[in-house]
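Researcher: Next entry in the queue.
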Amino acid sequence: MFGISKAIVCTLALLSTAAFADSKNQLTSELAMNNDCPDWLDHDVRQLHSSNKVNLCDLAANKPLLVINTASHCGFTSQFKGLEALHQRFKDQGLVVIGFPSNDFNQEAGTEKKTAEVCYINYGVTFFMTEKVHVKGNQAHPLFQHLARSQGAPKWNFNKYLINAEGTVINRFSSSTSPNSQEITNAIQQLFPDRKAQKGMLVDDYNPAWEVIPASLIIPYQPGLTSGRF
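Model: Structure for this entry, 230 residues:
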């Protein structure tokens, strides 16, 4: 009996040691991955209208990234529809879309609740939206300071910065460039040259149905909610 118990204990010890080794290897791998995250991305940010804080490395390290400075009461606010369509189209290939609300151009809503209503309810946004930040000048978020050094600071709302998985800023697209334009779509597709899902997929394959927002998510126009300057 003692021999059997001793054997069981030894077996459990071996299993525990193996499990610890696996955990250690996994932790080492995760730390190595985190070390690949550039300093300009390694910052905590709070999710819009939430107490949830997320490190941008956890969201986007080693992944292609589309960064947009957004505003709730801008002539380009309807681009949320196209950005959501891009998110739905390319998320399975690894593209991460992040919106950064900002009042640097005096067109963001006065409260986070109103900002959340515009993007989440009016436009059905499901990609990650952050708390309100500065996107230009000395107070700009470190990510936007890096983007400014690379491609220039945003000149207006809804500038779109495309970054590849290696952390290189590929391009900055202006406010007037539609998210579903051939220019942006082709640039994103080129980030996935080896993906089987992308072979044969052309801009002409774009389906406008991807932009359809369920009626239950759309609220009627209300003065002060979707127009005007704040």
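Model: The chain has a mean pLDDT of 80.
Researcher: Noted, moving on.
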